[in-house]
Every structure is written in C-alpha cells, then in structure tokens.
C-alpha cells in the first residue's frame, strides 16, 4: 500500500525517496469560461469551487485491474536502487507519463549522486559457528529458499545490513533481545561481560542501526539480527504454515534494510546530493553500525539461540516463538549442538559507493494559481521485487495519474488540474476524508481492511514524507490500507523486505482482485482533487489545537511536579495553546463567512488559503534539535521518551532526571511555546 | 538621520531595536470603487496601480519645521534604554499615533524583559595612573565637560563600556592601535610581553568588544578605548576648534557603546526576551569583553599615550592626532609625566540586570491585501540625548506617519494605506529611488549632502534592520542623508554616542532648518507609498544578479588557483549565477508583459509579487554559520575577510590557508551554490 514504512530510501533522500513526485498548481476553477462584456476573462474562474461531478467521474474511472497490471509490471523483477531493474522503472514511469492519450503535461528526470552500500556478490556475508580448532560447525544460509521461482532470480540481492562495515569479528554469542540500551544494560546487570561478544537481536523495539550502535557501547564486536516468528508470524514457524501457504514469512526469509538512523544522503546532510556538493568524510557519518552486522532468517536464528547457555533463562518479555526457551548466553550450552567453547563469527563484506540515480517527476500545470503545488509521491526502489513495498503505492499512483491525465487530455479538466497529492497533514480528517466511495470492510482479504473511519495518527519519520514534514514543514498526509490489527499481531506484513514480497504474494494474500488498491486510489484521488480544486483548502486547523491540548495534558500530568520544583512553569504553554485554539476557531468562522459570500474577492480567498497552507511552517525551528539531522518540526520530531507529548520537552525531561540539566528543559519548553505562539499568529486575523 | 549605525540597540533585539515598527498591508488600490452591475465590488480595486497624485500630495505635506519640533521633543532629555526618559518617549509616540486628527489606525506596546548593563552611579568608572607607592598620579575625567548646559543634566550617563565586566586590573600600559588581532600580533613581534598589561586602543578597525576579546587572548588584563581626533575630527583637537564652535568632538567627549559583537538579547539568543523564555547562564555569553574595559576622551588619552615609553615608535599607520609621537610602551618613559614604574589601573563598576521595556507599534490597515506588510522602523533609546542617533530618524518617522495618518483620516487614502517602510533590499535602486523631489546638494550644511544619485551598498549588520535581513530574509533598505566624505575624513559624525549629540548640535551643525530631514522624509515616504501601493512591487531583481556576478569575479580572481589545486571547481557557482540572471531577466519580461495587460488577473499579479517578495528568503540558510548568532543570509552575512565576495566562502578560504581545511571551503561553496539555485528557482516561471 502507499506509504509502507521502508528505511532504505531514507538514505537516498531527494534522490530516490520522492521518486514519483508529481507537482502541479492548485486549480481554483476549471470550467469553460462564461464571457460577459465589460468583465475580464479571469473573473468567473477565480471564485468557482470544486465540482462534485468531477470527483464522481474520477472515482468511476479508477480500475482495479489496471492497478493489478501496474503492480505486475513494476514488481516483475528485483529493482534495488540504482540497479538495472530500477533504471528500467525510470523508463516505465516516464513512458506512462508521456503517453499521448493518458500522459501528464510533462515528465522529467532529476539526477543525483547518492551514497549506497552493497554486499560483495563474490563473497557472501554469513554468520558462522566456529569451533575452538577453527573449523566451522554452522553457517547461515546465503539467501532465501526458492519457493515460487521468484527467489531464484539472479538479481535477488543476498541479505545484508546496508551501511554496516565489513569485518569478521568473532566472540561468544549473547541474546540481547531487541538491542535497546536497556536490553544491553539488563545483560550487564545479569553479570554478563559483553566485551568481545557477538549479540543476536530480534527486529523491533529499536531502529535497525541502533542495535549495533548500542551494542558497541558495551563492547559488543558484532551483531546478528533476525525476525522472530512471534513478532511477525503470530507464532507460525513451519514451512507449511508460511508462504506460499499463507502470508506468513517462511523460515528462510530475511529482512534486509538500511541500517541508518537518519534520512537523506549520508555524505551530504542538508544539501542536495549533486555532483558539486561537498561530501563529509566517511568517518564523520553518524547513525550507522560501527561494527559488522548481519541479518539472518529465523530458521538459522533458532539454531543459534536454542543452543545458548546461561542461567537464569531470559525473562518472559524476551522470549519469542522459535520453539525453545531463550537463554542469554554467553556462549553455547554444554549439551547442545556446538561445543561450549565455540564462538560465533559475523562475516560482512559490504562495500559503499556513490552511484547516479534519478528522481522522476511528472506535472499537470495548474490553470489559476500554477505556482501553488500539491505533491504526490512514492519511492521507486525496492529491496527485492518489492511488490508491496513500494510498488503497491506506485501502482496506485500510476492509475491515479492515468485517469487524471486522460481527463486533462480530453478537456474535461480545463488547462490541467493538479495531479497528485501526497503531503497533507492529519487535520485532513475532518475536512476531507469522508468521500462517499471510500468506506467499508473488504472481505476478500481477511487480514486487510480499511477501518471506517480512518485511523489517524501523527506522522513519524517512517516514510517518504519525512523530509517534507520534518524538514520543510509542508503539510503532509500518508494514506495506507492496512491489515486489521485485531486479527494479527504482526509487526508489519510478514514478507517485508524479503525475497517473498512478490506479485504472487500480493495478489494471493494481500489484495486479491486489487479492490483495496482501487479504494486507496479513489481515496487518494479524492483528497488530491479536493486539495487542488477547492476554493478554500480543506484543512481543519482546529484539529491541531486538539492535538496540542492532548500533548499539554500528558506533559502536565507527567512533568508538572518536577518542573514546579525547578521553577519552570507550564502556564505560558497553556496560554499559548489557548491562543492557538481561539485563533483556529476564529479562522474557521472567517472561512464560514467567506463561503457565504456570493462573489468573494480572490485576494480574500488567497489570504485564508495562505494561512491554512503556511500553518505547518510555523512549527519549524531549525535550531531546536541540533543533534537530529533534518528534524525541525517542534511538534512532530522523533523522540526517545515513550510519552506522547512534545518530543524535545519530553526527551529533555528524561535527560534532566539523569543529569540534572533543567535549563535544557526550560529551553525546550521555550521552543515549544514560541512555535505555538507563532502558529497562532499565522491563524489570527490581520490587526485592525 | 534614519539608520545611523548604533550598536547599543543590537543587544536589545526585538525589544527596543525596532522600537518604532509600523506595520500595514500592501494596498493595491485605494480609490472609491466604481460600481458596475453584474461585477463584484472588489473587481476594480484589484488592478488599480499607484496614483502619482497621491505621492505629490504626500510630498507637499511634509514640513521641515515639524520635524525640527519632533526632534526637539525627542531629544530634550537623555533617554537611555529603560530609563525614565526612554519610558516618556513611549508615551510621546503612542500619543502621536493615537491623535484623533493625524494618528494611525491603531498603536500598541509589546513588552520584553531585556538584559542590560549599567555603570554604578555611586562608584564612577575610571582609568588611573598608580605609582609604585600606591598613590594616584592621574585619573580620567568622570564625564564630559559642561559646554552647553545639556551635559549637566543629571540623567547623563557617565561613560562606560556596556557589558564589560567589573574589576580593577593594573599593569604596564601598551598602545595597541585599534585592538585588532593583527595589532596585538604586531606588538608581540616587537618583543613586547603583553601578559598582565593594560592596552589602550582607539575606536575603529575592530568591533568595540573585539578590542578586549582579542587582547585577552594575548594576556592583556584591561583595555582602555578612546576616540582619536585623527579619526573623527580631521585632526582638530583643541577646545576652540571643536563643539560648540564646530561639529567636531570636544576633548572631553567619550563615545559610549554596547561592547557586544552579537545582536539580540544576550541571554535569549534566537528567542523573544519574554518572561517565559529560558535564559542562558551569564558565563555562556560570548562576544563581550572578558576583561574590564573603559572608554575615555582624547584629552585623557593624550596624557597616557604621549607619555609612553618604547622604541621604536609606533609605525606610521598607528600614529594619530593627539599631538605627539605615539610609542608602544610597555609603561611610561623616564622623562615623562609619570615615574617609569607607574602602572595604569582600569576601574570598572558596571553591573548587569534584566529590565522591562516595550516596543511601540503603529498600524495603518491595508485595504486590499491586509496580510502583506511594509515595515518602517527605528530604535528609540539613545546613549545620552541622542539627537542624531536615533532621534533624527524618529523625528522623520513621526512626520511621515503624521502626514499619512492625516491622509487616511481625511479619506483620501481609502480604508488606510501602508504607513511606513524601512526594510527593502538594495535592488530598489533602479525601481524606486528617483523620486523627483529628492535630489540636489544642500548648501546650508557644508558637510552634509545627499549625493545625487544615491550611493548604494549592501546592508551590513550595522543597524536596526539587522535581524530583518540577516535572520528573517526580509528585503530591507536603509536610507540615510549623510555627509560628503570628500570634505571630511570623520569615521562617523563626531558627537556620536557622546553627551554632545544634542538638539543644539543638530540644529546648529547638522541640519539648520531641517531641510535634509525633510528630504529624507520625502524620500522614505515616496519609497514607502510605492511599495505599498504599486500594483507590482518596485523591486528590480536583476540588480541582485549583478551583485552575484561581481562577487563571483572577486572570488575567481582571488581563490581560483588554490581551489583548482584542491579539486574544487567554481564552475557550478558560475552556472548557478547564470541561471539566476536568466531567471531574473525572464521575470522582468513577464512583469513587463503583465503591465501591458488591461485587466491582469489579481492572482497573476499576486504570483509575480510573491516571487519578488520571497526572493530574499531563498538566500537564507540557518545552518550556514553556526558560530554566528542570527546570521543566516548567505550572501550578506558578516565576514572577516577583506574581500567583497561571498562571506562564508571568503572566510573559509582564509582559514584554509592557515589550517588546510579545504573541505570547509568546499562546504561553503556548496552553500552558496545551493542558495543561488534556490533563488533562481523562486524567480523562474512555473513549469509548463
């Protein structure tokens, strides 16, 4: 589905992550112009609102079968970034957008030079058990088993941890749960000396790179990562219970991924990865594993973990579904598969290089305000075939652009209309998400549904919109059709980033008939057309006020006692939120009044649309989080704290509890107050 | 005159520096509306351009005598920031802007809590010569001599170096020229041990605070600063050649000032100095003297410098007009006024505190696009009476606001018009500065004239516009009527920041009859009305392209050989500048086409105005200069290099020549290229 979380593309930043950005202007009206003597041509087009018939027409033309065919074309071959398969998709997309009948007004490429990491095709990475005499007692599988022929494609990249450094460290194995700081601390508390050990960790709980970054702080020399069937397969672990017999991950499946905490090209933080751009030395890169790291399948992980020594056993929360009791190590148990003196060796032969790649952009020009843009995007590159991640989103986008392109070419949409959205903020929920064709359960795919109403949350750093919302403050939205979490505990769809994320998998287990895809296309197109064509932008700023108030309540509940003790008052924050809410209500009222005017002045409409459009920018402070690349959005930045409140404040509070630096808490509180005051002033009417 | 360079206000930041910000919307039309059946009311007001008769009317109504009276009222008493005299001016200005006949639409105060430095009124600061036996052989004058009664006002603050720390260090005296790094280095090269010395330095060449910051690096323990008559008086140094007999500085005159390298409140960098704002600990403040520092008059400086020991004598460039040959020290010569063993002691009793103060803001509401603002501002606080700095600018502003306010009240200006400009970029030169009433020599004041044509340069960090242009990227302009530099070598007008900058001084020697003030008011009002009322903003973006090209030429000439040697190419910079120039020419052409349309669409006009208005923002990069508070404007930031080229590039180049860090040069070049590419994209037409 559109917007599946992927990490690989973050490192590509502007290069690939927005592979399918469509840009076009906001169209405020699109009908044939009624000529009246004495009045200028543009008069009537300026105050015309969205035409419901246009929406209806769009919805009717979206075809599930075409989306299915798009998906088949897009995922027929592996298309990892900058590989041949990926370059072929550049051409596929350009061809679609340049089609004489259904293409867009224009389509173009924008080239970048991006820093990537690859495994050495000649020397496979591995995780081995090495006995005292130096001989190998076990070696991990090189790649997934061939179950549906797709896995045998010679372009399937063997599993690796992108950006992990090469090396072959060897040591006693320990089980470190999810590789969080607290996990390693727990091992130390158990009396385990982590120096020189190899840690095996399961996916989840911490970022991929963090498992190694954290471990290295404790003396760990190599990290192994696997997907526990308890986290992704509802405990199913046998070959016959998993794909191709169900949507569950087979025992040999390995999640690849970008082991990188930041987004954007690693060598050119804050700047476009162009030929002329200064590149930092590789040793200044942060947020990637400092020690060799390798992912394996749970079949191999079972061999390692189920033979670990150590007493007591790992606590309940650390246990998984490998079919044995997990011990912590260090090393293997006496009565197991391997001699107790055996060690584990992580063999990594990754290399890094700068490759050329392109963004592909297509455009439908706006007819009234062609300098105002609505963007719709998705990344293009996958880890293997990438049927769900990312091609499901691309397949939907191509169908949306086909229908809109056709409508433009046929003259229904006058002089072009905005094509595609992607970036819109959560506030859309009241304004825009109740398009009547978008609703209902979907029974064909038991685990997948679109819960009515939409489930809405804040945007994390989890996908292609990250640089738009977090760095640029562009109002953003992520629409995904996902599975019913009451029916499965899977952390993500099980084939994620493996050689089993194929067209066959998608059409068999995810969306037979592609009707969910069709629903997403209709929803997305609906929002897109409304954003582009509505006289007044369909964004409800009061929702933001509610969110701020919720965040405030959490902060007050958790922090107030300590803050008061350190003479820091939350009252100015509360005052700022009240001001924001009053301003939002006032703007809504002015919008309502404007809607009742028969002939509103286009500049009055423009003024209100600017307030709606620029609100998100007011929450940016590029100096708020100097340690976090790109994160500038004070309300939505990433946070380490588990509390759903202002991230800078929450993290500063946690730190102050440790180090006593309450000044930093006051500073972060100041930053929050200032952006909310700024945001309120954006929404307020001009001074009289 | 408006915009005289002052440093004090920088520390007040948003609190006082923009004391007289007038804000109002861009008025695109202002006539009575012609009603036509079938067309909305707003139709005709949207495409009406500036009315020349309005300008004419404004020009005719500006009265020199009223400006003179304003100046008398404003400078009758000392009004240092947050003192009683300053608070009285808040009321004076509010009263003027709330006048029923000539006031503005509204006027208001905005309170801040600002960090200030004051001398102890009970314990005067001094610079003394102390003999070996501990007795005092000399002590500097406490304040200026009373020459015209103004100096006897009990509210005249005694000379001090604001923000210099208290203390009474003592040591051998050395003469350190202007206190630049190179000056101290030169002294060391002469074999002088600076450890434990007191340095006497003259104003000029380096920032006030830098004289002490630099000296402390060499072991200097106290700094004395004076104004050399060679720098400010064309060498005139006697009582009968100086004020009240001429405009020159009397021997007892002392330039006070803010010894602070940054702008904005020192405790709240990047945040408004409000009650809720986090304040950094005082020991984290940078950019102020780390050692006691005190300014004195040149009469006292002569006693110290003309008795210095040391051979050889100071080199020619270091000599001044005190009437003796300057030696370097250390200490006093054998045959002079003081025993050779005497030392100089700098006695400073300054204290720092947080005071409350207000911005005063007045507003004329725009009638068509009331959310677009033109700002006109000046600071309010002075060091003493401050007739020229800052009151001349305020006197002019009050006359402009009186005339515009009156025109609004009388209904000539419909529904209000923008009041006051201040912030506009240099590009105004072609578009706007040739108002026909603004020209000519002014013979009444032999040293002051407005050279025709305007002398135009880039905006430094030297005045109240600093935070607007450097931090916010708001197109800014500084209009000043200044003296003819072919007739005097004065660094600045001689009474600057002394107790002699009085109304008497201004009316006698600066602008008898206040006709120069009148000319400034007409010029400023002219620009202001054009900015507010023109259908298309009168800004010529091609001027920016010329400046970029000049900067490029300087960079190529000076840096290319070394850059090539380090594999850094200037070609992408040249390509970016070419793109910018083409984009600017294209925009100019589109503007010309738009002007020829009988009824341009208001949204087409809005689009072009946005491009003109937002251009300056494209040059901001808040991460370009992390060490320089607030400086974000990549083209106009301060620089240490003497080369008139891209500041970050020039400084990185100079550093690389010392430390070999050519990567930083490449990074700064990248930053320049990126902002120019961004700026070009702002100007380019939307994609087709």
From TrEMBL, chains A, B:
The keyword DNA repair does not apply. GO terms for cellular component: apical plasma membrane. Its cofactor is Zn(2+). Residues 359-408 form the Peptidase M28 domain. The keyword Cell membrane applies. InterPro entries: PA_dom_sf (IPR046450), PA_domain (IPR003137), Peptidase_M28 (IPR007484), Peptidase_M28B (IPR039373), TFR-like_dimer_dom (IPR007365), TFR-like_dimer_dom_sf (IPR036757). Residues 170-258 form the PA domain. Keywords: Aminopeptidase, Calcium, Cell membrane, Disulfide bond, Glycoprotein, Hydrolase, Membrane, Metal-binding, Metalloprotease, Protease, Signal-anchor, Transmembrane, Transmembrane helix, Zinc. One of its GO terms (biological process) is proteolysis. Coiled coil: none annotated. Gene3D superfamilies: 3.50.30.30, Transferrin receptor-like, dimerisation domain, Zn peptidases. Aminopeptidase with broad substrate specificity. Has lower activity with substrates that have Asp or Glu in the P2' position, or Pro in the P3' position. Lacks activity with substrates that have both Pro in the P3' position and Asp or Glu in the P2' position. Lacks carboxypeptidase activity. Lacks dipeptidyl-peptidase IV type activity. PANTHER family: AMINOPEPTIDASE NAALADL1, N-ACETYLATED-ALPHA-LINKED ACIDIC DIPEPTIDASE. Belongs to the peptidase M28 family. M28B subfamily. This is Aminopeptidase NAALADL1. It comes from Podarcis muralis.
């Amino acid at each position: 589905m559109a917007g599946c979380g992927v990490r690989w593309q973050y490192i590509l930043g502007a290069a690939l992550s927005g592979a399918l950005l469509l840009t076009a202007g906001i169209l405020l009206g699109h009908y044939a112009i009624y000529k009246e003597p004495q009045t200028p041509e543009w008069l009537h087009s300026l105050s015309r609102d969205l035409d419901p018939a246009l929406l209806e027409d769009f919805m009717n033309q979206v075809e599930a079968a075409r989306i299915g065919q798009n998906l088949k074309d897009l995922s027929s071959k592996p298309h990892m970034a900058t590989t041949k398969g990926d370059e072929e998709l550049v051409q596929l997309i350009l061809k679609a957008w340049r089609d004489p009948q259904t293409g867009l007004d224009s389509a173009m490429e924008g080239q970048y030079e991006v820093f990537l990491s690859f495994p050495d095709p000649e020397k496979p990475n591995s995780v081995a058990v090495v006995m005292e005499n130096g001989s190998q007692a076990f070696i991990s599988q090189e790649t997934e088993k061939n179950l549906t022929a797709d896995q045998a494609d010679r372009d399937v990249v063997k599993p690796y941890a992108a950006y992990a450094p090469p090396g072959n460290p060897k040591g006693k194995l320990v089980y470190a749960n999810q590789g969080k700081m607290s996990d390693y601390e727990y091992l130390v508390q158990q009396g385990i000396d982590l120096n020189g050990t190899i840690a095996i960790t399961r996916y989840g709980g911490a970022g991929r790179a963090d498992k190694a970054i954290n471990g290295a702080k404790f003396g760990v020399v190599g990290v192994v990562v696997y997907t526990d069937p308890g986290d992704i397969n509802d405990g199913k672990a046998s070959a016959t219970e998993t794909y191709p017999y169900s949507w569950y991950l087979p025992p040999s499946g390995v999640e690849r991924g970008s082991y990188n905490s930041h987004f954007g090209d690693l060598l050119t933080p804050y700047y476009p990865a162009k030929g002329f751009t200064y590149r930092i030395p590789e040793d200044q890169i942060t947020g990637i594993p400092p020690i060799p790291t390798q992912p394996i399948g749970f079949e191999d992980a079972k061999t390692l973990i189920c033979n670990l020594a150590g007493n007591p056993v790992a606590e309940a929360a650390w246990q998984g579904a490998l079919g044995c009791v997990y011990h912590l190590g260090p090393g293997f148990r006496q009565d197991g598969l391997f001699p107790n003196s055996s060690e584990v060796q992580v063999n990594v032969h990754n290399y890094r290089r700068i490759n050329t790649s392109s963004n592909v952009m297509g455009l439908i020009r706006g007819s009234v305000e062609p300098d105002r843009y609505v963007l719709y995007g998705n990344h293009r590159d996958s880890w293997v075939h990438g049927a769900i991640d990312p091609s499901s989103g691309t397949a939907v986008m191509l169908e949306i652009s086909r229908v809109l392109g056709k409508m433009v070419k046929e003259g229904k949409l006058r002089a072009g209309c905005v094509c595609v959205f992607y970036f819109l903020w959560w506030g859309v929920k009241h304004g825009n998400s109740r398009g009547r064709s978008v609703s209902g359960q979907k029974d064909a795919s038991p685990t997948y549904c679109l819960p009515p109403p939409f489930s809405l949350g804040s945007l994390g750093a989890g996908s292609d919109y990250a640089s738009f919302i977090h760095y640029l403050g562009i109002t953003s939205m992520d629409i995904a059709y996902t599975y019913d979490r009451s029916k499965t505990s899977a952390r993500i769809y099980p084939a994620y980033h493996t050689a089993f994320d194929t067209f066959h998998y998608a059409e068999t287990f995810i969306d037979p008939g592609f009707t969910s895809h069709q629903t997403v296309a209709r929803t997305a197109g609906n929002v897109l057309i409304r954003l582009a064509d509505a006289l007044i932008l369909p964004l409800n700023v009061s929702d933001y006020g509610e969110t701020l108030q919720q965040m405030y309540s959490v902060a007050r509940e958790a922090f107030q006692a300590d803050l008061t003790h350190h003479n820091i008052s939350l009252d100015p924050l509360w005052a700022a939120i009240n001001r924001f809410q009053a301003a939002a209500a006032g703007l809504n009222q002015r919008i309502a009044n404007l809607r009742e005017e028969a002939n509103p002045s286009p500049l009055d409409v423009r003024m209100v649309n600017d307030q709606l459009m620029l609100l998100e920018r007011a929450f940016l402070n590029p100096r708020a989080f100097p340690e976090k690349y790109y994160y500038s959005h004070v309300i939505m930045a990433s946070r380490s704290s588990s509390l759903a409140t202002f991230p800078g404040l929450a993290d500063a509070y946690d730190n102050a509890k440790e180090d006593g630096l309450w000044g930093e808490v006051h500073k972060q509180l100041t930053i929050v107050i200032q952006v909310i005051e700024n945001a309120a002033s954006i929404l307020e009417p001009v001074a009289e």
